[in-house]
Amino acid sequence: MSDPRALFDLTGRVACVTGASSGLGQRAAVALAAAGARVVGVARRADALSDWAAKTGERAATVAADLSHRDAIAKIATDVSQPFGAPDILVHAAGINTREAADDVTADGWDVTMNLNLAAPFFLSQALVPAMKARGWGRIVNFASLQTTRAFPGGIAYGASKAGVGQLTRAMAEAWSTDGITANAIGPGFFPTELTGPVFSDPERAARNAAQTCIGRNGALEDIDGPLLFLCSDASAYVTGQVLMVDGGYTAK
Hints:
Blueprint lengths: L13 E5 L4 H12 L3 E6 L2 H11 L3 E5 L8 H8 L8 E4 L14 H29 L2 E6 L12 H21 L4 E8 L8 H4 L2 H10 L12 H8 L10 E4 L7
Parallel strand pairs: 1-2, 1-4, 2-3, 4-5, 5-6, 6-7
């Protein structure tokens, strides 16, 4: 029997992580590089990307781009394939939450939310899947949310986009898994990131969220490492079309 630990080894793999300038996206990029992958980080903020790449070293490369612009996706797909070759692993962590109440949702807020949270994961995947098909191996990991299945105040656009991510993940699995490409999603609970800054800036609210979990605390960035490496490696070869909630049991209660 081969060493089960080798299932998680990403040596020789190339990963692309969107939203790599901060939060869970950057943590994903760090974890993948630590597991042996060469990682291309994509985000709007070139300075934050450069800081991450400098700490990571030769296994890191960056592409500064705005994924919310649909007409930029084709060029982004080309650019992320330049440093190390076409990615084997694609992690869609970039996202936005405008936190507009239902009565106040604007067309611009709606459109940027859908473009970044839902359209970009599909169209970037679509552009990069042919190279995965040619190799007979690929991993796509989308980022779902508690709001994939639950409604939160001020989250109508965000929640709609994340519910879409759940179905997008299943549809990707149906379309591409016979080619050796699995598609799954991680659904984070409450983690301290820029996106959840308004939540953690209110200690009482953060405490209520922690109490809602089965474990009794909110997430720490390192809690994403194991689930992510599982879904990005050979360890999950027979897992596809799934949304893995990494929420301390928040959705179990």
